[in-house]
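Lab meeting, item 3. Inverse folding demo.
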């Protein structure tokens, strides 16, 4: 059998694929550091990629699944089995210490309790934004909670954190 020397190598690696993998790593990093959704992380990174690198990325649904799994793994506790604390059974539950920095307001215990969660940096950006879009839902909240409100805004031109 005759082996070709390295000088006769007949193909090269796909540079766009390498940059696409690097972009996925950047999305994971952004999502972890900013408590961002997979969609927001994708938007933040993809907007700065050239066309050939964007074409090398996986389909959006596949990429979202990878990012959700990454977030799930990063959120796991020390036991590596539970991603979140147990579901509260009454209105007197305490916010676990690892989520305290995400709690912006707690009106106190009782039936009329209001909790506001968010990122302090994004609240500052919300203050400077010209466009706000509010949404509410009764369907995707735990039975303990009555309603979930979310506020979306234009972070930078054409980029809305948390928007789907």
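The presenter then showed the designed sequence:
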């Amino acid at each position: 059998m005759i082996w070709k020397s390295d000088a006769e190598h007949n193909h090269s690696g796909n540079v766009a694929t390498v940059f696409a993998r690097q972009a996925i790593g950047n999305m994971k990093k952004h999502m972890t550091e900013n408590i961002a959704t997979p969609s927001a992380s994708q938007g933040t990174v993809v907007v700065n990629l050239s066309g050939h690198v964007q074409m090398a990325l996986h389909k959006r649904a596949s990429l979202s699944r990878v990012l959700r799994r990454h977030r799930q793994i990063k959120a796991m506790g020390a036991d590596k089995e539970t991603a979140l604390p147990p579901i509260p059974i009454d209105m007197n539950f305490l916010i676990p210490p690892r989520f305290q920095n995400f709690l912006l307001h707690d009106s106190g215990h009782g039936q009329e309790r209001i909790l506001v969660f968010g990122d302090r940096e994004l609240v500052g950006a919300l203050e400077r934004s010209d466009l706000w879009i509010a949404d509410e839902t009764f369907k995707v909240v735990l039975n303990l909670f009555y309603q979930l409100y979310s506020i979306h805004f234009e972070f930078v031109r054409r980029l809305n954190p948390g928007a789907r």
